[in-house]
Amino acid sequence: MASILFLAHRVPFPPDRGDKIRGWHVLRHLARSHRVHLCAFADDRRDLQPRAQLVEATASRTILWRGKGRVRAVAQALATRRPFSLTAFDAAAMRAAVGDVLAREPIDAIYGFSGQMAQYLPAGSRARIVMDFVDMDSAKFAQYAGEARGPMRWLLAREARLLQAFEADVAARVDASLFVSEAEAALFRKATGAPRVRAIGNGIDTGFYDPAAGAPVSEAGPLIVFTGQMDYRPNIDAVAWFAETVLPEVRERHPGARFAIVGRAPTPAVRALAQVPGVLVTGEVPDVRGWLAAASVVVAPLRIARGVQNKVLEAMAMARPVVASPEAAEGIDHDGWLSVARAPGDFANAISALLADPAQASAIGARARRQVQRRYGWDAQLAPLDALLELEAA
């Protein structure tokens, strides 16, 4: 039985947001045959006390509070000429925790989850190192910079440039670099020329995300649903764009249609959207499956997105018809199971057609679930990991 050091920028359990979902399933996969030692940050006070499932899956756990504010992280980044994505997660206590695990445990492999944790990869270690970047974060910041103005444009362009150099340096010295989709992996290869880059996609637990698993919430009329962490910039941008440019056109044809924004930590800008006719902002809900089960249509109108969107796989697993932007559909085999639209009019047309023909919408949803069951199980997606880490099962 091998020993693995698992570095995570966020405690991976409970798996209640996109990054934690991938992190938890990777950790659990590795823990089935190996001893996993976790070093992770927490940004939710509830995560400081590990749940029973996380304790059961790990041989040891070090969870540290990440309380550094954005202004402080940016100031440190400017002073040290580093990306603020790294200074935000730079902590002496985490370096000490990683060093302690390496000193006391015969670590055979290290799994770094998310680029922010690459700064803790030890130099000169004999352990095999796999860096799961998930997405190419530098490309995301370049996209942000392209839409910003003034000093913020300069700051975001600086972040993109410095972060890409850091990503390339890390990829050159680890044994494998992972990305969530082949498109993301190809983008990284082209931008950095890095070797040993491959894609391992996200999966979905179709036993949990099952249309028969829970009762739909009670909402009258056609219901359009978006799910996600609502203090995350791409999600904020997506729901604002949809509520302001797409929903009015849908409601002209279907006056009773409502748009539910379902997810924790809605910002003031998101909460303000509840003043738009037909918009409902739920905040955190105990179980998102009830809202998905009630949805006439699920939308993913992200204009800034990287990799595979868990929200799309979850909706498809729940047998819901989905209308998504090209960015949100990236990396998902969606021929005939997912509608893709970019312009507001195209989005409105696709949604209106589904609302006008519930039988066809239901048939598309059923096909979507079958596709997810066939292609996107976590076991199938993560099967290559042991070979990449060069570990033998117990």
Shape designation:
globular
CATH class of the largest domain: Alpha Beta
- The secondary structure category is alpha/beta
CATH architecture of the largest domain, by name, is 3-Layer(aba) Sandwich
Question: Helix segment count?
Answer: 17
* Main sheet specs: 7 strands, parallel
Keywords: Transferase
InterPro entries: Glyco_trans_4-like_N (IPR028098), Sugar_tfrase_PEP-CTERM_Stp1 (IPR017521)
Domain Glycosyltransferase subfamily 4-like N-terminal: 25-206
GO molecular function: glycosyltransferase activity
Structure description:
This protein is of the alpha/beta class. The protein folds into two domains: 213 residues, Glycogen Phosphorylase B (Rossmann fold); 153 residues, Rossmann fold (3-Layer(aba) Sandwich), CATH 3.40.50. Helix content is 46%, strand content 16%. It contains 17 helices and 13 strands. Strands 3-2-1-4-5-6-7 form a seven-stranded parallel β-sheet, sandwiched between helices. Strand 9, helix 10 and strand 10 form a beta-alpha-beta unit. Helix 6 packs antiparallel against helix 7 and helix 9 packs across helix 14. The longest helix is centred in the middle third of the chain and has 24 residues. The radius of gyration is 21 Å and the shape is globular.
